[in-house]
Amino acid sequence: MIVRLLSLVSLLALLVTPAHAQDREVPYWATVRAKELNMRVGPSADYKVDWVYRRPGLPVKVIRVMEGWRLIQDPDGDKGWVVARLLSPDRGAIVVGKGQTELRLDPEADAPVKWRVEPGVVGTLGDCDDGWCEFTVGNRGGWILEKRLWGAGEP
């Protein structure tokens, strides 16, 4: 009887979780899922398109939730409304700052340099610790200073 009850509770938890995933506490990080994403001036398809993103994986900060819409802030600080289903909970980041920065073999300033990346490069964000983050661009990855990434750390 207890096993059946636990199984039922587990099943109910699985069914309820996707609905709650859309109601996360803001702010939180997300990435652009679609090949093309319209940012609107309000939370409806009736509002004017203010900007079109054409960069899957671009990190955004979700700052407000309204039904199927999310108010986002992009790396340039621009804000607008997008359809929630076109965002992914996957973590990504974009290289910021001036000039190239290094992707290193290990999370240490004196670790060998594997690659150099330019500001504006978008990649997948891994774990961050002690000011360093795992960062992958295509099939190339390494460790990069957290301060050179927008999309890392607390939103």
UniProtKB/TrEMBL annotation:
Organism superkingdom: Bacteria
Signal peptide, first to last residue: 1-21
UniProt keywords, alphabetically: Signal
Cross-referenced InterPro entries: DUF1058
Matching Pfam families: SH3_4
Descriptive protein name: SH3b domain-containing protein
Organism: Qipengyuania soli
